Amino acid sequence: MTQALDQVDYDTLDAAKRRFIEAAKRTLGFASSYGKVPASGLGGSANAFSFNLAPFLAAGNQELSLTLVPEGLGTADDTRPDDLSEEELRRFWWNIGIKIISCLTNDAASSGMQTVLLGLYLPSSTPETIFTPAFLDGFLDGVVEACKRVGCVYISGETPQLKTKIISGRLDIAGSVFGVMPPGVAPIDGSRLGAGNSIVLVESSGPHENGFTPLRKLAESLPGGYRTKLPSGREFWEAMNAASHLYTPLVQAVLRAGIRPTAMENITGHGWQKLMRSAKPLRYVVENMLPVPEIFSFVEEHLEGGPEMMLSVFNYGAGFAIYTESEQDAQQIVSLAREHGLLAVVAGRVEASPSREVVVAPLGVTLKGESFGIARGV
């Protein structure tokens, strides 16, 4: 007795891959100051990028400082009601396209890196239910828009069908980016961070890519679910899905202005505990806060734990932190952020301390380093 051959759905996968390649072609000119890839070079197992070394040689660079950042979106793409219209789905997936580029490039930006190339990995078990017109139109347009804002090329990707590994109807969204420090600039590695530094906080648009496990759980308990309306009238899923801010343009503007931050942090998982990521025994005193997005006030009203829990889990309105040696530099960064359409504030200062801690004075909360097991520079 014989049985039918069970194989992957290449018709659906190949059609999706062609759409991804077409999207990649739209990004080829976005990193022109760093190099180029010919349109004819896309679609291969390994696509080539010709890196322009001339600016680095002119700046006297004897070596290049590079990074390779792998990251995954997590479950942000699962947080939506089942009854979204086609228009809402396209908008949802557009924001998800922004989010995956955000979580990759914002991490690279925390060391001062300019993302040049990125690749995406989107495995699923049922590609015929995943790669719909709404997904392909929305997600790929979001990716292209994010690449344009950041200044990078989407050069490669993979969309495998993994029948025994991925839940039916779901996909994983992950990728990696290749970044480089601009000519003549050393990486911002936190080694110069110290007491007396100023802290600049830059606004977030909402949860960005983190905290979706408790947000999903909360949505399940709300009478209106994901469509519960916030006081402004905005639905819960829309506030959760808000496109993340992309901080690379601001960071590069800061470096072009001649400012050399002592450290930078992308405030993601672990919330404001990330402010004390350095292994150095320092106290981070926050006296001025940015406006708290509505979604966080709503969540705080419905979950136990109060401000300390919110600060330990969510970015709570502050998506990126920049540390400077002088308050003058800090004030200039606030001005540069405004020019990039971002609200920022000189939030406080760094002090000497026997141990790591973050003191959020307006909320009366102190986050202790003992509860935060990640440290940079150990």
TrEMBL record:
Superkingdom of the organism of origin: Bacteria
GO BP annotation list: 'de novo' IMP biosynthetic process; adenine biosynthetic process
One GO MF term attached to the UniProt entry: ATP binding
Record's GO cellular component terms: cytosol
Reactions listed under catalytic activity: 2-formamido-N(1)-(5-O-phospho-beta-D-ribosyl)acetamidine + ATP = 5-amino-1-(5-phospho-beta-D-ribosyl)imidazole + ADP + phosphate + H(+)
KW Nucleotide-binding (keyword) present: yes
Domain named PurM-like N-terminal: residues: 93-181
Keywords from the UniProt entry: ATP-binding, Ligase, Nucleotide-binding
Limits of the PurM-like C-terminal domain: 195-360
InterPro entries the UniProt entry points to: PurM-like_C_dom (IPR010918), PurM-like_C_sf (IPR036676), PurM-like_N (IPR016188), PurM-like_N_sf (IPR036921), PurM_cligase (IPR004733)
Family: Belongs to the AIR synthase family.
Full protein name: Phosphoribosylformylglycinamidine cyclo-ligase
Lineage: Bacteria, Bacillati, Cyanobacteriota, Cyanophyceae, Nostocales
